[in-house]
Amino acid sequence: MADTTDPIIRVRNLSRDFQVGGRGRKRQTLHAVSDASFDVLPGETLGVVGESGSGKSTIGRMLVGLLPATRGEIELFGETITGPSGKQALAKVRHKLQFVFQDPHAAMNPRMRISDIIAEPIDVRGGWTRKDRADRVAELLELVGLSAAFADRFPHEFSGGQRQRIVIARALALDPAFIVCDEAVAALDVSMQAQVINLLMDLQQRLGLSYLFIAHDLAVVRAVSTRIAVLYAGEIVELSDKRSLYTDPKHPYTQALLAAIPRPEVGTRKPPIRGEVPSLLNRPPGCTLCPRCPKAFDRCRTEAPALREVAPGRKVACHLYDGV
Amino acid sequence: MLQIENLSVDFRVDSGWISSVTDVSFTLGPRASLGIVGESGSGKSVTALSVLRLHAARNTRMRGRIMFDGQDLLTLPERRMREIRGRDIAMIFQDPMHSLNPVLTIGDQIGETLRIHQKLDAAAAQKAAIGLLDMVRIPDAARRVTDYPHQLSGGMRQRVMIAMAIACRPRLLIADEPTTALDVTVQAQILDLLRDLREEIGMSVILISHDLGLVAEFAERVLVMYAGELVEEAPSLTMFARPAHPYSEGLLKAIPSADEDVGRLYAIPGRIPDPGRRPPGCNFAPRCPLVQPACTAAPPPLATMEPGHLIRCPVRLAAMETTG
Amino acid sequence: MTDATTLPAAAMPPRSARRRILMRRLWRHRSFRVGAGIVAVIVLMAVAAPLLSGGQPNAMSLRNRFAPPSADFIFGADNFGRDIFTRVLYGARISLWIGFASAMLAAAGGALVGMASAWFRKLDGIIMRIMDALLAFPAILLAIGINAALGPQVSSVIIALASAYVPRMARIVRAAALVVRELDYVDAARVSGAGAGRIIFRHILPNVMAPLLVSVTFVFAYAILAEAALSFLGIGPPPPHPSWGNIIAEGRDYSVEAWWIMLFPGLAISLAALGMNLLGDGLRDVLDPRLKIEA
């Protein structure tokens, strides 16, 4: 891929807090994302893997301006969309960003025709003639493998896989450069999932798109990603190129995730990691994985590890690699 | 122990009756594990719910026989059926949150089954509940027994559901997508728990899932369903290593792998026909790479390929015979 | 795309079929059928009033004062010898108009307030507390107050009743809108840069119409009843124009000796309210979003 090019997206120390539990003393701060830093290069797919509560969706929503950041910086195509002049900056680059949702049923207004759904980004931006708009809708439908004759229909007439294609067509309407796919195939059946993954890969090649591909399924992430960030409890614990992550996972949590994948040969799977993701309200001091980690030692209980480069292109947040 | 013969299930819709499950037969011995795999709309859950007769009677039509311990569950009066549910046959579902009553403690809810079926008093039921929580590996059971469902994590809730299901030491447990709503690492824990409990209690388990890998790891035998029909039945290792039906084959190829980089995924073209609009011949014919003119003429029968391995595909069967 | 072959047209009902399915479900719903039947008959009779009667609801005939129901006066006559049947028919026009207009006005006001509350979260607390305060007040008392201030006209009855029912409507719209605004398609519009106007009018409002429509039918029924109550208290539509409420009000002094003056408009009110309620029940069941129209 493009190793030497400048990143189109630069995220530094991005954090997002949520206030929960009413007012006054009962109010608590939930750290959904803490100190995330990463880049996305042109034409690449950054896979973001994590379980529920890992903050992966929160990151995706912040990147397209659906959710403001609490701290940190997001730079998209050279514009910093966080901070005081973030709104104007976001308006300048908005047409280059898009989002594909998990549930294609909820992602379309049931009362709008497919043509109006797909053309929404065009209508919002304005300045298109009626004919150009209709031509573009037809072109987009064909681009995602659907018939242009579907334009006058309504969402309920389509199956889940077809709806996700329509959602992708909408995302492509203004020729974006970067698309956040938030669990974009998780709600689909296996055979539909393969179709949509292939479609996303084909579109990437043809249109030179970059993706942030958020998923909980490690196999799916392996199929689509160039590089992968592993999230745990709001923090990036490992950031690596795809091949090394799967052949030589460094972080104990990455190892646990890979070990948890079911295998058909009985007895080949290692016993799963204990416990569940901690509540983000009472995070343990030190490393967040510590209470579950089979390799934890004293230092892990008191001091949080930072994300550090342990090999070229590989970053891990774990005290096991302090000496490296 | 369980013998399903030619089960068909129809549902009432606006325009009349549509067939959901067609002519499904299989048997399950004591202490056995069986997996049922299929995409949404395949009829896998409908088949399982039929065993417990949990469909709304007004809008459902069931034919065939479901023999359990020598009696046909389909002809049993509702009162007898209620005795069997929970005592001899238990079930757990995908979403543990919606299956638990939020205003009762988990001890009360586990105890309820025991009080109904074993006429225990409140104190004895509470004690038994603690024992069951221990059995499903919930730490500190004596204290957790007074918790309410919202105080538990998703994985813990599913453990509570399992505790309720095994309260009367059933001989058959039906688990309908029990891990789909859970995180990857928790999914592995629940799967291991179910496997251990099957041996401890000596029950049979039917695991229903869309995830072939999961089913193959757990079950000795696997059934693949497509559009309401059984298309293949085989020992799970055989199913994984050399699936014979073109649909099972396609399904396996469509799953991305976490173990290797596959490049482009195989995708089964098209989609599952809607119930009521199934093709006249083989249901899979419109999507099948092996399709022959005969396939679209008449529905193919389920035939034995080798002992214990049945497929509904005469084309593949003939090819197998000629090659030896 | 290579294997993303152009898929065949989905085998699902097109738009017109969707409507047809909806209509068929409605028609199959027994209480909707009965309710719609009752309402249709009443509306037809109100429209055809001049054909079905003498056409003069205010024509007095001293000879026929207090005539009991008979072949000539099937509902009897009142203290001025006016034909009750004719008056009930013409009364339907005013009563139904009051019901319809106040329900519509309340719906419009409720939609405005409810949407504002759901969209501008900072105003929500204040708006909803005001609505709560109004709800805590009995609707009829509120209507009396407003009506007294505006003076005795049909329009002031409508305004009074509409204002009294705005808080309920606002609550319903707000609740539905809060659900819709969290849906992914609203986020999709925001990602595309859509502003508040587009999101509210294109995405949220059309998707809260179903619960609004259902409550319109119920408010319609309440308003007809409330009109009667206001008339009974002497602040309904001004006489001599008949409404069901003021026919009853005028008959109340003769309730023992000329029971028919009150009985027939009373029956008409009950029947209309029953019809609207049944119709609303049916609409609610059929428009329930949990009943998806697919396959």
Automatic annotation (TrEMBL), chain B:
Gene Ontology molecular-function annotations: ATP binding; ATP hydrolysis activity
InterPro entries given in the database record: AAA+_ATPase, ABC_Ni/Peptide_Import, ABC_transporter-like_ATP-bd, ABC_transporter-like_CS, Oligopep_ABC_C, P-loop_NTPase
GO biological process, one term: transmembrane transport
Membrane topology, record value: Peripheral membrane protein
Top-level taxon of origin: Bacteria
Keywords assigned by UniProt, alphabetized: ATP-binding, Cell membrane, Membrane, Nucleotide-binding, Transport
Source organism: Primorskyibacter flagellatus
Main location, first listed in the record: membrane
Keyword Endoplasmic reticulum: no
Family note: Belongs to the ABC transporter superfamily.
Stored Pfam families: ABC_tran, oligo_HPY
Protein name (Swiss-Prot/TrEMBL): Peptide ABC transporter ATP-binding protein
Record domain ABC transporter: where: 2-252
Gene3D superfamilies: P-loop containing nucleotide triphosphate hydrolases
GO cellular component, as recorded: plasma membrane
Subcellular location: Cell inner membrane
From TrEMBL, chain C:
Gene Ontology CC annotations of this record: plasma membrane
Annotated transmembrane regions: 32-52, 94-114, 150-166, 208-235, 258-280
Bilayer disposition of the protein: Multi-pass membrane protein
Keywords annotated in UniProt: Cell membrane, Membrane, Peptide transport, Protein transport, Transmembrane, Transmembrane helix, Transport
Gene Ontology biological-process annotations: peptide transport; protein transport; transmembrane transport
Stretches assigned to the ABC transmembrane type-1 domain: 92-280
Cell compartments where the protein resides: Cell membrane
Family from the record: Belongs to the binding-protein-dependent transport system permease family.
PANTHER family referenced in this protein's UniProt entry, alphabetically: D,D-DIPEPTIDE TRANSPORT SYSTEM PERMEASE PROTEIN DDPC-RELATED (PTHR43386:SF1), OLIGOPEPTIDE TRANSPORT SYSTEM PERMEASE PROTEIN APPC (PTHR43386)
Record-given protein name: Peptide ABC transporter permease
Taxonomic source organism: Primorskyibacter flagellatus
